[in-house]
Automatic annotation (TrEMBL):
Spans through the membrane: none
Keyword Mitochondrion in annotation: no
The keyword Hydrolase is annotated on this UniProt entry: yes
Organism for this UniProt entry: Bodo saltans (Flagellated protozoan)
Official protein name in the record: NlpC/P60 domain-containing protein
Keywords: Hydrolase, Protease, Signal, Thiol protease
Domain spans labelled NlpC/P60: 126-260
Protein family membership: Belongs to the peptidase C40 family.
One GO-annotated biological process of the protein: proteolysis
An MF annotation (GO) of this entry: cysteine-type peptidase activity
Amino acid sequence: MKSLLVCALLAATLLASVIEARGCPSYESAVDICHNFTRIEKKDSRCRFWSCVVQFCDAEYVQATQHKYCRVPATAPRLKLPTSPLPRGVVARNTAKTVGTPATSSPCGGGQGSTDASTIRHWLLDTAMNVYYDRANEHYTEGNQRWSGITGHVCPPNAPEYSDCSSTVTWIYWTLFGNGNDFMNNESWSAGYTGTLDQHGTQVPINTTDLAIGDLCFYYTPMHHVAIYVGGGKVVSHGMDPVGYYPYDYAPVDFCRRYI
């Protein structure tokens, strides 16, 4: 057991040096790494995923999330070293520029007031991944029930029982900003669709170098679907059942937008 732990720590150290050499020792890059080097499919993957992230980004909020899902501080996961080139999604990324980050006003205990962008993106990532992990209990609908996550005051780690693509991404943001101004749809967090989401935020380049956690990607021409970017070249999407975890370009991307 001791030798396995030593090997795991050595692998993590070597991988960190590879990433640092490529100029991306950041929270978003840590997430990129761990999307690519941990299995995501099951709820028990959360402990392993956040144990991976904390190896490269030991911020207090990351440690708190690791402890939440692991119950106790976890040992470092065993990481398989990448071959060259690094997997898709692990890139030397450009610094994600904010577009005027609003103050958090969370109905779910996520914070109040001025909050740095990395902490916000961390919350959005954790919440979006919980939507994916809880997919067995979620149902796609385009009816009024799609807003049940907000009207029913559903908070993470739970996810709405009913939703569609636009209400899912709106709910994810509502969990952190829902007691404040609706800067996503301008509908007081009670309505909206892809067409209203399209009218807010700022357009960003469609590539893993520039996309940041929390950006929304819109699909098809004419546009009629949206998913949330979660790092590692991946999005969480509820365009059908079950909720999907896909490469960001799993369907034709029309454009992507940033809201924080």
